[in-house]
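Continuing the batch. This is chain 6 of the set; chains 1 through 5 are on the previous pages. Same settings as before, nothing changed between runs. Recording input and output for traceability.
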Amino acid sequence: MPAKEHWPRHNHENFYWLQEDLIRGRQGLGDGWTFSIWRPQALFGNALGSPMNIIGALGAWAAILREQGRPLYFPGGGPLVTAATDTRLLADAIWWGCKAEAARNETFNIVNGDVLVWPHIFGAIAEVFQMPMAEAQEERLQQTMPGEEAIWAEMCEKYDLRRNSLAEWIGSSWEFTDRSLATGVEYPPPSVLSPVKLQQAGFHGCTDTEDSLIWWLQRLQRERWLPT
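Output for chain 6:
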């Protein structure tokens, strides 16, 4: 840490490596085009059925706690030092990479630019939902949340939310969220990508991760994925 683009591949099966090898092989056919490879960290955004939708998962979980009259608490494990990538920032970087000569046939890490330790910014979720905070309490969301479909269906009717079940919207993102919060791990190893190569190539975009968390939760409220 911080992980750098020139480090050798980790020796395990990974469909990303297959994709990279495929695109490099096709480029060798001589069509005269270039590519860029982007490596974000925990993405902040939203997509129906995405297996890595941590914002949707945390938002739905917090909303259900509030509906049950319970306070918000940090459900994860030890304080993992990591980073996140706002999908708006990723989009800006990809657009820059489409035009920049420095991005041709290059691999770039792309992160917000700060460091994320979830317990340090979890209070922002409570502020969005106007909830009190309680002491940390470990919870495996992949085990508890699939059983909350009934209350979620009632909330969709009560608050005129989109009529998607938790399984349809969040699905396996419960498991991804548990991993992202280091649930069950007392001393999680740090995991941070270095953005230096991208900055030196000419892209200088950045965003505050706590602000990003708030913005996405509020957007999900505006778009009726979550109650206000």
